[in-house]
Amino acid sequence: MKPLILDSALGTEIENRGEFLPSFKTSIWSAYCLIHNPDLILQIHIDNIEAGADIITTSNYQATPELLKREPTAPLYSELAKKSLELCQKAVDVTGKNTKIAGCFPPIHVTFRPDLSGNQDQLNDFYSTLGAIYKNNTDIIICETMASIYEGTTAATIAKEFSNETWLSWTTRGNKGNASRLPSTELLEDAIIAGSNLDVDCQMVNCVHADEASEAIIKLKSLSTNFGVYANSSVYKHNPLDGFVNDSDEYHHQHSQFIDPEEYGNFAKKWIDEGVYALGGCCRTSTDHIKIIKKIVESL
Questions:
Q1: Domains of the chain
Q2: What is the pLDDT tens value at each position of the chain, 300 positions in all?
Q3: What is the spatial distance between Cα 291 and Cα 53, in angstroms, rounded to a whole number?
Q4: In the chain, count of helices (H) and strands (E)?
Q5: Which of the residues 155, 163, 218, 246 could staple to 143 if both were Cys, CB 3.0 to 4.6 A apart?
Q6: Angle between helices 77-95 and 120-134 (to 10 degrees)
Q7: Angle, alpha carbons 272-276-277 (nearest 5°)
């Protein structure tokens, strides 16, 4: 069976098109565009579908109750989730293609900072609210960039209550180059086992260097039935000044070398050879990356 193709990075596409994109660490990041220029996000969805994406994901990744506190005048996260769903639905209608919609379950707080995650009641309320919005309106719920087993399994457990198909994607970014551990320092292997125990439909890694994703696939393949990847358009490159970098996310960027869509496509070929169920793009990927993945998949 040919693998499913996910869409490209949202933030990168927003920035590539000249729209204001503030830092995700201190602002509402892509949610700013969702609020102030939703038509641009609609066009990004359309362009991803036309590039070959089989699945597009709702654009409410940064629209969480904790992060929206940074913008007191912002709408409620539930309203932004509804808007992001409507944009996906409109994009599917406009293109007339049988594209699936994935509802996003993002981390409740800053990405790569599991120490800031909410308590059980906060997570239950957040993910249950999103799940109720997505129920019968999306094909998949995808728990994205999960940085701890606690938040990942909480999100996936609730997702299964609202969706017939649940995907769980882990990240190993932000742990100072250790591709075998989540930002929580928990082993990726243990996270995958926890996800398998929940019988999720697909486990993935995302928001990591492409070469680190290849390492993670080895564990995913051995411990989960369906697996996938949507990596960053970059590879690890050692920076001799790493002793001066304390922030774990900054460490990722300081030890990063950009790769172009063709180079990313070479990684995609290897992932397909390993048997991925789905693949797409995360940070620094664009619709050009999706076009190349589509050509590779069509050639199978």
A1: 4-298 (3.20.20.330)
A2: 899 999 999 999 999 999 988 887 788 999 999 999 999 999 999 999 999 999 999 999 999 999 999 999 999 999 999 999 999 999 999 999 999 999 999 999 988 899 999 999 999 999 999 999 999 999 999 999 999 999 999 999 999 999 999 999 999 986 666 689 999 999 999 999 999 999 999 999 999 999 999 999 999 999 999 999 999 999 977 666 655 555 556 666 666 789 999 999 999 999 999 999 999 999 999 999 999 999 999 999
A3: 8
A4: 11, 10
A5: 155
A6: 30
A7: 125
